[in-house]
């Protein structure tokens, strides 16, 4: 028989050291001291500005009108009855909706192609996700150079391909300026969709497809019966992230069209920026921001609630 | 219903040679179990039969037709996977019927077949539920339903019970056996669990390193293992192996273990052996009993053992002792032995003992 090991008792730790009254107080409150910097930062940089902006939206705070008189809902009224504001909100919805839809379809197609392994997959994958690493400002600038008349090569290439003179004002004519903005957004953000959807696709057990193949199920039926239901949560996640990002669309517009011609490419963010920081109607811009925040919050709530409700398969 | 004939089958993954030349004939309606340790090529063999893997060499015939170039769907085989592989957003009824629907069977007939399969498996009340609402055992029943509803030529099972807990596994094992008795279709079943292999199989094909080590009826493999590998793989607790030497004296043969001489039955056919040859004596726990008679019976060897490890299971007690320096386990009645250190007369049934060549590890 092996000798059994005995459990060795630890030496008694003894009573905790006695602390002075101050030391006891410090000991109890030390945790507050530790979180204080973070709390102060949040209070100063988030909570205070938020509350202050709420105040500002009900008073006059305009560089062109002196005084800070209480004006009730007047600031909100100005935004609601401003046709440019309504247009910008509509445009935000349209642009982000269309861009995200295209990005989703393209991203899914690319992901479905890339989920199989083939020679050179790694290299292609790296190239595909490069746009994600580029600042939106640079992306806007690059597309401007590519599209803008008369220097951009796009019209020239189209002319050669189609065999007839193409003279599209990509940054000035409707609907081309919207198409330009969508192209830039799609170019930059399709890889995002692709990466998330690819992650979702690789997580689907290959057995399911094998079982379906033995069942005599064709590729299209397998897509509906296996791929979609398994990819559902990932799709929703990708769409939510992208949509929340897209409705803040600002930088590419700032670079590519500057909101113009006129106010034709004003998105909500661009509108608020212009009203607040170029016209200095700060209280109107603040009221507009609150309205936009409410719209955004509605969408976020809907999407996130749906996202949280997804059941595991 | 169909027979399966595999000839000279090889499967290579790059440099890795997973299946290294398999010849196997499975008669119509037989329940064949491919068993072996992980990495022995049994799953690869099964997947190659299904067509999910392409063979590197050799032919596979199902029902007299060479199917090497057939797609899996055209081989008319059904397979049950370890992780069930159900369609997540379809009800149980749709899961079972989807294969038929995909093959354009008219809807009323699909419904009749699904109802019949559900009845056989006792899952009729679950038909409206979704896979996520089912337990593991219920899911596996649905997966089996999906296979039987198609009435395929052969059934393939790839470790179907490995994800279930022990009790459910026993239950499902019985059901699969009953299913085979009811529908009598050719079934090929892969498992690493020797109990499953023993209980289910008409024939066990024991694989090792991509080759068939031995095949035959379960009891044949159990009682006449061709090698120490087979002997050690089948049976739990496993067979004890004792190194010794053959002692031949005219027609009488015995095995010498250190200073003990264990006589072998005179009728035992020993061929191509030499006196003094190094051998391994294989003893299963059930070949050893506590001595109940004054003198040992014909063909048994009595040994005064000192028990040094005791493992009671309730109905039986497994007692380990040393014989010529090597540990041997005996399966005794629960009350035959009460504590380690006890001295006990053990009768070893030499008629049932296996003898292997010590170098080739093949049976003599």
Describe this structure in words.
The complex is a heterodimer of chains A (313) and B (364). Chain A is flat. With 313 residues, chain A is mainly alpha-helical. Chain A has one domain (74-309): MetI-like (MetI-like fold, Orthogonal Bundle), CATH 1.10.3720. In chain A, 69% of the residues lie in helices and 0% in strands. The model of chain A has no long low-confidence stretch (mean pLDDT 87). Chain A contains twelve helices and no strands. Chain B folds into two domains: 4-233, Rossmann fold (3-Layer(aba) Sandwich); 240-357, OB fold (Dihydrolipoamide Acetyltransferase, E2P), CATH 2.40.50. Helices cover 23% and strands 36% of the residues of chain B. Chain B has eight helices and 20 strands. Chain B has helices at residues 42-50, 92-102, 107-121, 136-148, 166-183, 194-200, 218-223, 228-233; strands at 4-13, 16-26, 31-35, 57-62, 65-66, 77-80, 154-158, 186-191, 203-208, 211-216, 240-249, 252-257, 260-263, 278-283, 288-290, 300-312, 316-323, 326-333, 343-349, 354-357. Chain B has a six-stranded mixed beta sheet, sandwiched between helices. In chain B, strands 13-12-11-14-20 form a five-stranded antiparallel beta sheet. In chain B, strands 15-19-16-17-18 form a five-stranded antiparallel beta sheet, with no helix packed on it. In chain B, helix 2 packs across helix 3, helix 2 runs parallel beside helix 4 (136-148) and helix 3 packs across helix 4. The interface between A and B is medium-sized, with 20 and 25 residues.
Number of strands of chain B: 20
Q: Provide the succession of SSEs of chain B.
A: EEEHEEEHHHEHEHEEHHEEEEEEEEEE
Category from helices, strands and their pairing of chain B: alpha+beta
- General shape of chain A: flat
CATH fold topology of the largest domain in chain B: Rossmann fold
Strand/helix succession of chain A: HHHHHHHHHHHH
Amino- and carboxy-terminal Cα gap of chain A = 53 Å
Low-confidence stretches of chain A: none
Distance between the termini of chain B: 39 Å
C-alpha-based Rg of chain A, rounded: 28 Å
Q: Under the CATH scheme, which class of the largest domain in chain B?
A: Alpha Beta
Total helical segments of chain A: 12
Morphology of chain B? elongated
Helix content of chain A: 55-70%
Largest beta-sheet characterization of chain A: none
At CATH level 2, the architecture of the largest domain in chain B is 3-Layer(aba) Sandwich
- CATH top-level class of chain A: Mainly Alpha
Coarse structural class of chain A: mainly alpha
The mean pLDDT of chain A is 87
CATH superfamily of chain A: MetI-like
């Amino acid at each position: 028989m092996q000798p059994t090991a005995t459990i060795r008792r630890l030496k008694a730790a003894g009573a905790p050291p006695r602390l002075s009254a101050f030391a006891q107080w410090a000991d109890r409150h030390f945790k507050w001291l530790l979180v204080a910097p973070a709390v102060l930062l949040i209070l100063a940089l988030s909570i205070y500005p938020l509350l202050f902006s709420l105040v500002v939206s009900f008073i006059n705070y305009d560089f062109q009108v002196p005084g800070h008189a209480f004006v009730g809902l007047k600031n909100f009224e100005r935004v609601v009855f401003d046709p440019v504001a309504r247009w910008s909100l509509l445009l935000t919805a349209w642009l982000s909706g269309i861009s995200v839809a295209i990005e989703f379809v393209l991203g899914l197609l690319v992901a479905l192609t890339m989920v199989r392994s083939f020679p050179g997959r790694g290299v292609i994958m790296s190239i595909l996700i490069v746009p994600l690493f580029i600042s939106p400002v640079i992306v806007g600038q690059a597309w401007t150079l590519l599209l803008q008349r008369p220097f951009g090569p796009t019209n020239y290439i189209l002319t050669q391909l189609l065999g007839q003179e193409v003279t599209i004002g990509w940054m000035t004519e409707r609907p081309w300026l919207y198409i330009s903005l969508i192209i830039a957004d799609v170019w930059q953000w399709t890889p995002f969709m692709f990466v998330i959807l690819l992650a979702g696709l690789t997580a689907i057990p290959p057995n399911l497809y094998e079982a379906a193949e033995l069942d005599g199920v064709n590729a299209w039926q397998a897509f509906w019966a296996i791929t979609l239901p398994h990819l559902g949560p990932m799709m929703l996640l990708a769409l939510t992230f992208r949509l929340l990002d897209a409705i803040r669309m600002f930088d590419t517009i700032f670079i590519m069209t500057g909101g113009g011609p006129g106010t034709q490419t004003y998105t909500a963010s661009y509108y608020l920026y212009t009203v607040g920081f170029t016209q200095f109607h700060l209280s109107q811009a603040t009221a507009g921001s609150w309205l936009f925040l409410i719209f955004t919050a509605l969408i976020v709530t809907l999407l996130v609630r749906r996202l949280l409700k997804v059941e595991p398969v | 219903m169909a027979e399966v004939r595999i000839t000279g089958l090889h499967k290579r993954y790059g440099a890795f040679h997973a299946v290294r030349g398999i010849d196997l004939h499975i008669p119509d309606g037989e329940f064949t179990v491919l068993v072996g340790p992980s990495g022995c090529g049994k799953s690869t063999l099964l997947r190659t039969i299904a067509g999910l893997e392409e063979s590197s060499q050799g032919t596979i015939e199902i029902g007299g037709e060479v199917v090497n170039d057939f797609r899996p769907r055209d081989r008319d085989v059904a397979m049950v996977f370890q992780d069930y592989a159900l369609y997540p957003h379809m009800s149980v009824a749709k899961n079972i019927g989807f294969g038929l629907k995909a093959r354009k069977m008219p809807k009323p007939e699909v419904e009749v077949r699904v109802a019949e399969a559900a009845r056989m498996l006792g899952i009729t009340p679950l038909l409206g539920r979704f896979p996520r609402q089912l337990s593991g055992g219920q899911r596996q029943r649905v997966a089996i339903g999906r296979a039987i509803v198609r009435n395929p030529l052969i059934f393939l099972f790839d470790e179907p019970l490995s994800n279930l807990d022990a009790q459910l596994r026993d239950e499902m094992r019985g059901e699969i056996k009953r299913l085979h008795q009811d529908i009598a279709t050719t079934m090929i079943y892969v498992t690493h669990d020797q109990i499953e292999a023993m209980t289910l199989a008409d024939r066990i094909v024991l694989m090792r390193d991509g080759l068939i080590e031995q095949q035959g009826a379960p009891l044949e493999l159990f009682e006449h293992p061709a090698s120490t590998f087979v002997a050690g793989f089948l049976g739990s607790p496993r067979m004890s192996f004792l190194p010794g030497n053959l002692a031949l004296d005219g027609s009488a043969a015995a095995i010498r273990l250190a200073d003990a001489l264990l006589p072998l039955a005179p009728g035992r056919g020993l061929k191509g052996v030499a006196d003094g040859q190094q051998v391994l004596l294989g003893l299963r726990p059930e070949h050893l009993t506590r001595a109940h008679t004054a003198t040992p019976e014909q063909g048994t060897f009595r040994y005064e053992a000192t028990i040094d490890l005791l493992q009671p299971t309730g109905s039986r007690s497994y007692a380990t002792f040393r014989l010529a320096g090597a540990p041997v386990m005996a399966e005794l009645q629960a009350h035959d032995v009460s504590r380690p250190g006890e001295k006990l007369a053990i009768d070893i049934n030499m008629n049932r003992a296996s003898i292997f060549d010590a170098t080739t590890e093949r049976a003599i």
